[in-house]
Design goal:
single chain; alpha/beta; Rossmann fold; seven-stranded parallel sheet; 7 strands; 15% strand; globular; binds NADP nicotinamide-adenine-dinucleotide phosphate
């Protein structure tokens, strides 16, 4: 039997890295997409290989429709099925709304929301014919409630939940699970600028700690397992109780 394969966008750093390592430990050949940080990508690949896992790096900007579609299509044609897709890559460019530049609005929507179509459509089509698959989309607490300075990010993270829920309804009859995780504050490069405020932030979190990338990977591990076969179109919040 051929090995199971998983694609993780933004799998080279942070939450995506923890998810990629988890998938490799679960026996998946992991395809890791990243945008440009080759050192981080190589480091993650080496870590996976040192545990005996298989990893292929795919460098492309997920907000580039043509390139993204072509690379994913080629991967599917030449190497076959993708059994698990984790739509994870994202960016934030916070600003209060009156001061938000159109570039800050557009780039966040492009990377976090529009790319959902570019990545997921070809994979979902393949899963539709293979009649199985697990898709997990990484949204955010900012996809569940408004956050100051994040109109662009919230719009993208609410939007991606809507897209994933629709897909869950469409694809369920083909034995394909689509679910969403909504992380709270997680310690990664993305939240580097908040690090000096961590002590203040912790006071707002009932569990009194900032989350780790592995907290998210653990939930994804459950969602891609047989144990979650009857969970469909749901948002699993992993936020230490920050938003209930
Ligand atoms: N950290 C948090 O507190 C938090 C909370 C809620 C939700 N999230 C969401 O969780 C996801 C992962 O966040 P993170 O904190 O792990 O971020 P991170 O540490 O900044 O890592 C981002 C990853 O995404 C990749 N990436 C960014 N833009 C890309 C693009 N245009 N094309 C392809 N790859 C791209 C990066 O590749 P390079 O290394 O090549 O740049 C990197 O692998 C995001 O969707 C984020 O919105 C994070």
């Amino acid at each position: 039997m051929s090995k199971k394969r998983a694609l993780v966008t933004g799998g080279s750093r942070g939450i995506g890295k923890a998810i990629s390592i988890m998938l490799a430990k679960n026996g998946y050949d992991v395809l890791i997409n990243y945008r440009g940080n080759i050192d981080a990508a190589n480091k993650t690949k080496s870590e996976i290989e040192s545990h005996g896992g298989q990893c292929t790096l795919l460098k492309f900007d997920i907000s580039d429709f043509k390139n993204t579609t072509e690379i994913i299509q080629k991967e599917l044609e030449e190497n076959g099925n993708i059994d698990v897709l984790v739509v994870n890559a994202g960016i934030r460019k916070d600003s209060i709304f009156q001061k938000m530049k159109s570039e800050e609005w557009d780039s966040v929507i492009d990377v976090n929301l529009k790319s959902f179509y570019y990545i997921t459509r070809p994979v979902a089509e393949k899963m539709f014919f293979q009649k199985h698959g697990k898709i997990v989309v990484v949204s955010s607490t900012s996809g569940q409630t408004g956050m100051p300075g994040q109109a662009n990010y919230c719009a993208s993270k609410f939007g991606i939940i809507g897209a994933a829920k629709s897909l869950a309804v469409e694809l369920g009859r083909r034995n394909i699970n689509v679910n969403i995780v909504a992380p709270g504050f997680i310690e990664t490069d993305m939240t580097e600028d908040l690090r000096e405020n961590y002590d203040e932030l912790k006071k707002q979190i009932p569990l009194r700690r900032i989350g780790k990338p592995e907290d998210i990977a653990n939930a994804v591990e459950f969602l891609i397992s047989d144990k979650a076969d009857y969970i469909q179109g749901q948002v699993i919040a992993i936020n230490g109780g920050l938003y209930t």
